[in-house]
Please model this.
Amino acid sequence: MIELLTMFLVLGVLAWAVGIVLSSMLSRWSCEPESPDRRIRRTTLVALLPWLLPVTWIASLGAVAAGKRAGWLDDHCRAHGDGHPHLCFEHFPAFQVDPLAAAALLLVLAVLAVTAVRHLMAALGRRRRLNGLLRLLPTGGLMRRIEDRRSMALVARPLRPVLLISRGLLEGLDRRERRVVVAHEAAHLRQGDLVKSSLFEWLLTVHWPAMAKRLRANWRQAIEERADDRVALRFGRSITAQVLLKVVRQQHFPATAGLSAGGANVAFRVERLLDDGGRASAAADWAAVALGVMALASAWPLAGAHHAMETFLGAILGA
Model:
């Protein structure tokens, strides 16, 4: 039983490694000059690959192992003997795992665990800073005013969202400009960007830090541009760009777990607004659809070549 679980574990690690390589190759494709909605979908799909491939590959060969037990597939395990590595829930393999292979597998799992913990600690640090700020403010209401001369406006907390605006920002803007800032943050709330960003952060826990940073930047840029587009429909692209520049010039505040009007690559956001481009496309993103289908379909050949895959996994484990 332990040998069978070890084989599935190695299969999952291999699938994760393939997903990481593909994510690294496709991360630049996900930030091509497309509409924000398309880039959000592409970035999400790229971030999903190190999760999607292990699940589909293990499910595929797990179905083969279950099929042998249920009698749906030819059971040829006895022809090779229990010492041959095979994926079967009817006849468990019985082979000796090489100590070096076991040590290497444990090392990979330890690296994965450390990477995930680093991501989680960074997210908790941002959340602690936000909670420390909220404790200083009066409770109740969606909008909270911060008695601070520094300029700041953001939405925070996925499940109980709150809009934070500092006195410094309110005093530095006229009435229409304040409405633009509030509309931008409200656009994040209507789109559920806080909840989606929290879920996206969970997807990044199994990515290398540099890759996670790139995907996070792509994601943040796309959702900020989408909010810009919604505000521009109401106030105009030129006015939205002017207010964005004014907010950024005034804004100096430490990073928290929220979405800010002055976040992401502001220069590109302003240039995009002034170019009057980037409107959302109603056409389906067939490139993203094709990638998703290929990621799911990659498990199908494994099931057909399960004997070769069993031999390969056994070679890795020194069987």
Q: What stands out?
A: The first helix runs from residue 2 to 26. The beta strands are 143-146, 153-156, 162-166, 258-260. Residues 1-253+262-317 form one domain. The chain is about 65% helix and 5% strand.
